[in-house]
Design a protein that fits this description.
Order of helices and strands: HEEEHEEEEEEEEEEEEEE
CATH topology of the largest domain: Immunoglobulin-like
Protein name: DUF4198 domain-containing protein
Structural class: mainly beta
Signal peptide: 1-20
Strand content: over 45%
Keywords: Signal
Radius of gyration: 24 Å
Distance between the termini: 81 Å
Number of helices: 2
Number of domains: 2
Helix content: under 10%
Amino acid sequence: MKYKILITFFSLFFYLLSNATPTKVMIRAKAKDAKFIGSSIGGAYVTVKNKLTGEILSQGKTKGGTGNTTLIMKTARERDMMITDDTTSGFLAELDIAEPVFVSIQVVAPVNKKQASVTATTEIWVIPGKDILNDGVIVEIPGFIVDILTPRTHQFISLKTLSQKKVNIQANVVMMCGCTISKGGLWDAEKIEVNGIVKKNDTIIDQIKLVSTSPNLFEGNFITNETGTYEVIISAYAPNTGNTGVDKINYIITQ
């Protein structure tokens, strides 16, 4: 009896395998209010799973460029109009399936920026032999990438070295696709609020506003006369889109 079950199982397995049809699904990650997440920012990591069984059917990183700025950001889109081309970043999943499969698509992006990475998912039916190409499945990734440049993580700063007791704060802020934020630019720095919270020994002691001083760079400062362990939390917020981003660092002020 046991052998009959095994024979039946393997017969079914090889039947399904022999009747599997290669089916392609193009998957792309697009930054909210911006362009596609491509190789220049490290890409997005895509995992395609059988929703019922949890089996991983395909996985890998998106590769390619961020796309055509005019087409994506400045052109009114009509039905059936594509916003991608052969150079636009994406991941081509190739699934061998014998029958329709309901799949879960998970996208982690941008994969190389851990403090900014967002995990977004969607679900679709994939039908054998019915490729999903062209723009494919586009998963939106909201937010900003915020990197605090100054002070550095766990930096020791002496009060004696501070001019007028000012601690300078610098942060790099870009769209999730790496697109540039600048004054008067397509992604206008003056429409993004970048603010900081300063904590000493886990207590908030100051709040500051950072201003754009050059593309992607925002700066501010606060005054202190005390030594101790400090934390800075920098946030970016765009009222028109709801995009947000945060970075945190800890440092020490000594005599």
